[in-house]
Design a protein that fits this description.
33% of the residues lie in helices and 26% in strands. It has 322 residues and is of the alpha+beta class. The two termini are 38 Å apart. The chain binds cytidine-5'-monophosphate.
């Protein structure tokens, strides 16, 4: 599909209304429980996914008209800093291109074009759902620009074939995701002030789940306590915030930290710097620190130490509440 130019009968340039410039927010997992392997090679999980104020930017220029175009042409370009774009594939494995192909197929074959310009800001293979967030943004934008009018459920179904995190990122608010990630329920949780420690290396999702299997597959406790502690209003008093340290757990963290000790070092340094809780996000390696509302930032020494261990400066972001 990529690169096969459609034929345009009228040479007039498409109007600006055929372009959308949208943010593609990343996510953090505030708990992640792996229940066990499945027959299809995936793992059954239960995880709280919250969008955060760190986003890629996706510019989508697209149009469809079955009477004018004979085929579908889809292109993708990267914009922005080379370091942020490092490791982003430009071939059909890119989740934006896969999302366009899956959406066209679900709509019975779109004839027209889609041109994407992707500006990466979310680190790649970081456990922050960067690629899935791009796919979610692409699906929403194309649904509009191609006039497909698919409903949220249908979009989520298409998204789940593109990547396990896509349905959660399509939601745009905190959700509990179950199954392999495709079963989504809105979650009532407060927005949180966070510090993200990203790393100069990435972890593949398949590796993280493989290491969980290899290490004997430990499943953490029922997350009901964590959900109750994160309810809007429940966090107003600092005592509850402190309880998150014992309640938040990611079952992939131990297997990943076992292979990448920097993850554990960062977590310990964050706790020492005074965050209420620290947890690895998704399949890692990013570590999320939860700041109390009166902690604007870490002290300068902690910031320097964390950057030395992780290889990247810390980021201050908020997670979205419901
Ligand atoms: O769905 P996605 O392409 O993001 O998954 C990448 C890989 O991560 C899968 O091929 C699988 O190995 C692993 N995975 C898993 N269980 C999940 C999600 C992902 O084992 N629920």
């Amino acid at each position: 599909m990529t690169g096969s130019a459609g034929e345009q009968a009228t040479p007039a340039p498409p109007a600006p209304s055929h372009t959308l410039d949208v943010p593609a927010p990343a996510k953090v997992n505030l708990f992640l429980r792996v229940l066990g392997p499945r027959d299809d090679g995936y793992h059954e999980l239960e995880t709280l996914v919250a969008p955060v104020g760190l986003a890629d930017r996706l510019r989508v220029h697209a149009f469809s008209d079955a009477e004018v175009f004979r085929s579908l042409s889809v292109t993708l370009e990267l914009a922005g800093s080379r370091r942020d774009a490092a490791g982003v594939p430009l071939d059909e494995s890119n989740l934006v291109l896969r999302a366009a192909a899956a959406l066209s197929e679900a709509a019975g074959g779109v004839r027209g074009f889609a041109e994407f310009v992707l500006e990466k800001r979310v680190p790649v293979s970081a456990g922050l759902g960067g690629g899935s967030g791009d796919a979610a943004a692409a699906l929403r934008a194309l649904n509009t620009l191609w006039n497909l009018d698919l409903g949220d459920e249908e979009l989520a179904r298409v998204g789940s074939a593109v990547g396990s995190d896509v349905p959660a990122l399509l939601a745009g608010h905190p959700v509990v995701a179950r199954g392999r990630g495709e079963r989504i329920d809105a979650a009532a949780v407060a927005g949180l002030a966070l510090v993200l420690v990203t790393f100069s290396f990435g972890v593949s999702t398949a590796d993280a789940f493989g290491w969980w299997d290899e290490d004997g597959g430990q499943t953490g406790p029922d997350p009901a306590g964590a959900l109750a502690a994160l309810r809007p209003g429940a966090l107003r008093d600092g005592g509850d915030l402190a309880s998150l340290a014992t309640l938040l757990r990611n079952d992939l963290e131990k297997p990943v930290a076992g292979r990448h000790p920097a993850v554990r070092e960062v977590k310990e340094r964050l706790r020492h710097a005074g965050v209420a809780a620290a947890i690895m996000s998704g399949s890692g390696p990013t570590v999320v620190g939860i700041r109390s509302p009166d902690m604007r930032r870490l002290d300068a020494q902690a910031e320097r130490d964390l950057e030395r261990i992780a290889g990247r400066p810390v980021l201050y972001v908020d997670s979205e509440g419901s």
